[in-house]
């Protein structure tokens, strides 16, 4: 599992605004420098199809956004209220009305009831990662630590004008760390937390607090008219008012009532209201829990469910069993709710055990009844309605089989996506063996890589939830194979929190199975994440244990390489050299020229760090020759970039120019914007070393533009070097 086997040949790169061409140090051209930049991000949830005015509160939000405030601070508006009362809808609606205020984009993070649940539910660093990706920063351009990602987020947002919606927040201290240092930005925070927590955040930041309560009768009637039609309401206005009262003014309850009325068009509004009122008073149902509106949603859920045909009832129950991050209890009050559940038609078909066209029909019927929402082919199960469906599914005979079907579906879909990201890396799982070589739904080439990574990004939370759920159920084979299939995504996009937590579960599953191949795969994938995040002690523990149980010589070569690289990253090239040599010897004995070349590249870097320039040069030249013979243009270019840096440090300027120019040409052809920037920066150093200050400045500007294109902080550092 050396670099080329792990996916270096298929990196996801973000937006590219500038392409740099440098054939010789004397000649440098920049193409595309004046092209229009990418459109600003729009990452908000879809706006509600029917939003009722709440005009006074919208005006209050606009006034707060326009008010004077201390320099460098954004406007903060906290929308507090019970679940289902329309907090997110109001924030999205306001952002749509005021969109011209925010030329730099509209950003969104679902905090899912509390950020401190690190790991599968998402930690603070994961939230920063999501926001950075919305800004076009991903993969190798992300700092490895949470603190680094938060710092980069603040830097990227400084002096920009963005709208940021922090949805479902609970912990004020963590919300504070996500606030952009930009007086032109506006941050909406929605919460159903305690008012003491809301007041704490508001007091520290001068935030406006909007307490969102039930809809007024006027707005409730307007929503009901929009949902069921004027004629239905006009026939029984008093009944409509009674229905609004029993719904508690909750938009979600009103929508459910509308769904019930659409199915039973002969039902009078007054009759439905009376039935709900009787249930609320205990004469037609069990004891009523608080709050009123939330309980009404459950009663209306019963009404809607009772009118469903059997096939639709089954779908309603089984879909609620889809694994979701946050289904376990957590230390954070309310944190068990987690981010909202979103899924596609393929997952629904697997859960239900029906063909996709049949699943699509069932999903459409549930959307018509307002128990699901739909957006661009994905379906959202509102928390309160999902809780109602899960209660009905309690004791479901086919629950275990349904969850297993959807878990297997996610495994196969993830394997297909991973093979599209990098079809050449070695894998161990049976599903990889089955699907390798089969036609890919993504096609081939760079477009396939981007499409596969986009699918993995969209389904990432669901995939993590399946790992967690399958681990709890003891489906050990599924767990470790799904972790293996997440490699291309994690290697490319660096979601370290989830990478580490899923793979800890995967390693435990492999150990339970006692399968050496599974233990090897999980050990090296987890070890890589640990040493990349500088958790060297744990990385060495995992990798040394993996080495003990690994018998295959080529697998041992991979583990030895990773142990060596961990030592090298920790600043101990001497210890690194010992492991890297052992790894290289194994590759030599088994006639694996690419593996030999990769190890020689790392050995050359270690030799250079130890001051042995001659041996470093010998190793690197041999690595270059081996990569050229394979052929492996990308890794050959990496070696030539390293050689160029060594020549430059030694004052061999002609040799440095030759290697750097060749490396740059390959990286441009491969579309590697970040590596292009690094090499252009090295060429700038070369120009400065040869006394051409003007050309050095020109090259630095080109390198900075390329760094900017992929969201790297290095562009700003080049323009403003430390004094």
Automatic annotation (TrEMBL):
Keywords carried by this UniProt record: TPR repeat
Chain positions of TPR repeats: 557-590
SUPFAM superfamilies for the chain: P-loop containing nucleoside triphosphate hydrolases (SSF52540), TPR-like (SSF48452)
Span of the signal peptide: none
Keyword Nucleotide-binding included in the entry's annotation: no
rRNA processing as UniProt keyword: no
Domain of life of the native organism: Bacteria
Matches recorded under InterPro entries: P-loop_NTPase (IPR027417), TPR-like_helical_dom_sf (IPR011990), TPR_rpt (IPR019734)
UniProt protein name: Tetratricopeptide repeat protein
């Amino acid at each position: 599992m050396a670099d080329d086997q792990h996916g270096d040949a298929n990196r996801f790169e973000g937006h590219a605004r500038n392409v740099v061409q440098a054939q010789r140090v004397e000649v440098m051209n920049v193409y595309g420098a004046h092209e229009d930049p990418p459109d600003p991000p729009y990452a908000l949830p879809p706006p509600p199809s029917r939003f009722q005015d709440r005009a006074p509160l919208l005006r209050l939000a606009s006034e707060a956004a326009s008010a004077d405030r201390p320099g460098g601070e954004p406007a903060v508006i906290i929308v507090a209220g019970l679940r289902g009362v329309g907090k997110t809808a109001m924030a999205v609606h306001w952002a749509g009305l005021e969109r011209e205020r925010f030329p730099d984009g509209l950003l969104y993070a679902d905090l899912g009831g509390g950020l401190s649940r690190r790991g599968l539910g998402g930690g603070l660093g994961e939230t920063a990662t999501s926001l950075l990706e919305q800004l076009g920063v991903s993969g190798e351009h992300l700092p490895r630590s949470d603190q680094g990602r938060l710092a980069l987020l603040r830097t990227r947002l400084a002096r920009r004008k963005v709208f940021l919606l922090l949805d479902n927040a609970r912990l004020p201290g963590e919300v504070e760390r996500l606030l952009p240092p930009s007086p032109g930005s506006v941050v909406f925070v929605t919460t159903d937390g305690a008012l003491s927590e809301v007041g704490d955040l508001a007091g520290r930041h001068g935030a406006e607090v909007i307490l969102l309560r039930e809809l007024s009768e006027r707005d409730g009637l307007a929503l009901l008219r929009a949902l069921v039609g004027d004629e239905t309401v006009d026939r029984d206005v008093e009944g409509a008012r009674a229905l609004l009262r029993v719904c508690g003014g909750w938009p979600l309850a009103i929508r459910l009532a509308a769904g019930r009325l659409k199915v039973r068009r002969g039902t009078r509004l007054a009759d439905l209201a009376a039935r709900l009122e009787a249930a609320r008073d205990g004469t037609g149902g069990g004891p009523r829990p608080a709050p009123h509106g939330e309980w009404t949603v459950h009663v209306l859920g019963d009404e809607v469910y009772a009118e469903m045909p059997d096939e639709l009832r089954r779908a309603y129950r089984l879909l609620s069993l889809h694994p979701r991050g946050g289904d376990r209890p957590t230390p954070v009050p309310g944190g068990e709710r987690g981010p909202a559940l979103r899924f596609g038609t393929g997952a629904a078909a697997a859960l239900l055990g029906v063909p996709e066209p049949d699943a699509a029909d069932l999903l459409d019927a549930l959307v018509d009844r307002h128990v699901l929402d739909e957006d661009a082919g994905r379906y959202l199960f509102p928390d309160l309605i999902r809780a109602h469906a899960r209660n009905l599914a309690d004791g479901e005979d086919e629950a275990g089989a349904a969850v297993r079907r959807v878990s297997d579906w996610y495994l196969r879909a993830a394997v297909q996506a991973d093979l599209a990201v990098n079809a050449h890396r070695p894998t161990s799982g049976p599903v990889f063996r089955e699907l390798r070589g089969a036609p890919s739904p993504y096609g081939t080439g760079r477009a396939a890589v981007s499409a596969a990574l986009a699918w993995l990004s969209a389904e990432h939370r669901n995939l993590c939830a399946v790992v967690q759920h399958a681990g709890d159920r003891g489906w050990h084979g599924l767990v470790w194979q799904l972790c293996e299939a997440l490699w291309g995504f994690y290697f490319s996009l660096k979601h370290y929190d989830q990478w580490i937590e899923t793979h800890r579960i995967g390693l435990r599953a492999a150990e339970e199975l006692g399968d050496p191949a599974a233990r090897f795969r999980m050990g090296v994938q987890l070890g890589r994440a640990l040493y990349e995040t500088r958790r060297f002690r744990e990385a060495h523990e995992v990798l040394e244990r993996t080495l003990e149980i690994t018998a295959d010589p080529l697998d041992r070569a991979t583990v030895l390489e990773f142990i060596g690289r961990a030592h090298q990253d920790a600043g101990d090239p001497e210890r690194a050299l010992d492991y890297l040599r052992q790894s290289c010897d194994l590759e030599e004995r088994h006639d694996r020229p690419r593996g030999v070349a990769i190890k020689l590249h790392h050995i050359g870097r270690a030799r250079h760090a130890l001051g042995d320039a001659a041996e470093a040069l010998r190793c690197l030249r041999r690595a270059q020759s081996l990569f050229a013979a394979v052929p492996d243009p990308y890794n050959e270019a990496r070696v030539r970039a390293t050689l160029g840096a060594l020549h430059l440090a030694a004052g061999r300027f002609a040799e440095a120019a030759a290697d750097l120019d060749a490396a740059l040409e390959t990286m441009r052809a491969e579309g590697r914007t970040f590596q292009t920037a690094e090499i252009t920066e090295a060429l700038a150093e070369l120009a400065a070393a040869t006394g051409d200050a003007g050309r050095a400045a020109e090259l630095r500007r080109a390198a900075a533009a390329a760094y900017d294109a992929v969201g790297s902080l290095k562009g700003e550092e080049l323009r403003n070097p430390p004094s």
